[in-house]
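Hi again,

Forgot to attach this to my earlier email, sorry! This is the prediction with glycine bound. I've pasted everything inline since the attachment limit keeps bouncing my files.
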Amino acid sequence: MNVLLIGSGGREHAIAIALKKSPRLGKLFVAPGNPGTADIAENVVLKVTDHQAVVDFCRLMKVELVVVGPEAPLVAGLVDDLEAAGIKAFGPSKAAAQLEGSKGFTKDLCREFSIPTADYERFTQADAAKAYVRKKGAPIVVKADGLAAGKGVIVATSVDEALAAIDLIFGGAFGAAGAEVVVEDFLDGEEASFFALCDGTRALALASAQDHKRVFDGDKGPNTGGMGAYSPAPIMTDEMTARVMREIIEPTMRGMAQRGIPFKGVLFAGLMIGEAGPKLIEFNTRFGDPETQVMLPRLQDDLLELFIACANGELKTTHTHLSSDTALTVVFAAKGYPEAPETGTVIEGIERAAAMESVTVHHAGTRREGLRLLANGGRVLNITARGANPAQAQQRAYAAIDLINWPGGFCRRDIGWRAIKA
Ligand code: AMP
Ligand code: GLY
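Structure tokens for the complex follow:
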């Protein structure tokens, strides 16, 4: 079967590596891909916002399944347009992608179907939001409703900070994503990411991970898309996984089906595990980046078969098989990330790192210029290593990083600290 994978990050490189293991895979195309996917698949230039162009490409190249990596094409309805043209896709419809595209939508679903989450209210007017914040007090969390590239959430430690956040969002700092605001209670506990594959009615627990969002060691500095991750998350025991499936994932599947917008694709739950058990912070309707780079190497099942089953609404598998080791990835970012990453700097020595035992170098934001490899984004490389335990995986990942010569890059030196402590 020929497959088209949409996206260009480390996530897509990891998905491509996993798909390549399937005996059922014919040709793998990646649009636009990156130098990592170019080594194992065929990168293609396609305007992904032009859905007809994607359909035409699939017909021309006999692509039978499209796998959508990032959220933007999902929210833009690419899956709807592919399916209307008779082409199968792994990913939710535009309506189902609201689980990521609108925080208010998800919170209302939680309320209706008794899914544990922080208590909240939705607002379209600053005055009403401010009155609610004054009534509730701090700490409190203020969120732009729509997609804001992970920046639309302000965890306010004081009422004044929350009031300023409301003005910021309604003032247009996040564009249309800030036309509505959700204000919710602050949740205490340990965060974990959990992923389930869904076929519209059934959900299959895939794997857990934890990421490090802050840019500097010790979880300090501004939030980023993620500076590193590891899988599994020690807090996600079998019991906790069963509970998350029962209390969060399955009611979401039922609720979406009941609303006539069944969810198909991968459901990524951001969880806060506190004393009262797991609570939903947010959903994403796609794979995490860099979480995917540490989950998929552990997967022993055929990912393509799972994607096909989800796309066909025929997910019969009841559990996945994951290796019991730890995978850990360190994001090697361009200096200046996240505010102003410096691109175009030269990277040398990734072959040495990739040749190390149990190490994979995922490309995230690189480009080739002749024989040279250049930085071409904020998060540039993901150095991923596996080990018998978190400490060994961490030691291998940093040993591999030390073989790479890239003066223009930096990374955190403490990825996995919580898992190692556990
Ligand atoms: P989100 O984009 O909704 O995942 O939020 C980004 C980050 O903000 C989360 O990963 C949490 O660290 C934090 N956060 C969001 N909502 C809450 C909450 N209700 N209580 C505490 N922290 C939160
Ligand atoms: N690493 C978080 C995300 O993919 O949204």
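Residues 118, 141, 150, 153, 155, 184, 186-187, 191, 270, 281-282 surround adenosine monophosphate (ligand 1) (CB under 6 Å). The radius of gyration is 21 Å.

That should be everything now.

G.
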